[in-house]
Amino acid sequence: MIRGVVVTYTLRPDAMDEHLRLIEGVFAQLRAERPSDLSYQVLRLADGVSFVHVSTSDTADGSNPLPQLEAFRAFGDDLGSRVASPPTPNAAEVVGSYSPAAQ
User: Fold this and answer.
1) Which 3 state secondary structure label does DSSP give 99?
2) What Rg, from alpha-carbon coordinates, does the chain have?
3) 2-91: what fold?
4) pLDDT value of position 103
């Protein structure tokens, strides 16, 4: 069952370096483990402090494996102290998707 979630929030500018380091940690773990049932993307908007996370998963039970990753849990630790506006998650339906072959 394919499920999606889109999370938006605004970061405090003074927390940017740590925040980006933690995001890179999530992607490093994803590259190392290469889960086949998860797609994840993080976008920083043009204002430089607003972020959008897009995650889709295709698991038998509809769960998202992203929160199980150690690096993602570390990213979530103390997130409240880094954000100017709290994360707003929204369930999403995948209507279409394209991704070139993994490198």
Assistant:
1) coil
2) 14
3) Alpha-Beta Plaits (3.30.70)
4) 43
